[in-house]
Specification:
Elements (H helix, E strand, L loop, with lengths): L1 H15 L3 E2 L3 H5 L4 E12 L7 E13 L2 E4 L3 H5 L9 E8 L3 E10 L19 E13 L2 E10 L7 E13 L3 E12 L1 H8 L6 H4 L9 E14 L4 E12 L1 H4 L8 E12 L1
Parallel strand pairs: 1-5
Antiparallel strand pairs: 2-3, 2-13, 3-4, 4-5, 5-6, 6-7, 7-8, 8-9, 9-10, 10-11, 11-12, 12-13
Amino acid sequence: MRTASLLLTATALMTAVPAQAGPDAAKDKDEDIRYLLGASLSAAPEYDGASRLKFKVRPLWAVRFGRIRIATSGGSALLGFGRENVGAGASTQLVESAKWRVGVSLRFDSGRNSGDARTTQGLPDVKRTLRAKFSATYTLTPDWNISGSLSQDMLGRGGGLTAGLDLGWRFYRSESTEWTSGIGLSAANAQNMRSYFGVPASAAAASGKPAYEPGAGLRDVHIGVGVKHALDQHWFVFGSAGASQLQGPAADSPLVEKRGGYGASVGVAWRN
């Protein structure tokens, strides 16, 4: 009941709050429904700090109707919603101008099943929850932007609060191809750190790890590059690669096997 109530309240707020828009916003709102379907193959650490890679094949989709966008991770940007730091889930823009984009979003966070990785076995699971995110992007130049975000666990299931700050650069663009890159950092409060990097004293024996109770602080610094290439009017391929380095209380966790990690993904999609 609590989850349903939050979703209904958020949907009402998304549709009720008028966006402050620039001269092109009315044109964008009048566009037909847009959607995307695709699939991606990715390789990434089992969890932040793990030494083993995990490969995933997953579907990718996104849809926009009016000011509301609903998408899987990465789907929103691929559909061409703009260089917005919104991400997966249901989202809307509160402010759209030549320089600023400010938005809110809701998404389900799958948490962590501690039995999925050998090094986290015996630890408490991090429960699935609903996260609300506030994000803002400022356009420095047509090819440079800076963005920040805050994301909060709305159900109090251990997800806590996370924050991010990123600088993005589109360094090549043609009629069919676009290359982008970015660098940034993330931080988290004590609740998030304890859930993902902590070892409760009650689980120390079962996990074989020393007890560890981290506080708030930096989580990581990261860098990445991405490419999109249109094959024709509807089909396109895409790829990305990135690296990160754990920082602060996260890096000191006994769960961390490698402070540095990397990942990559490739995929294909169709959009109307």
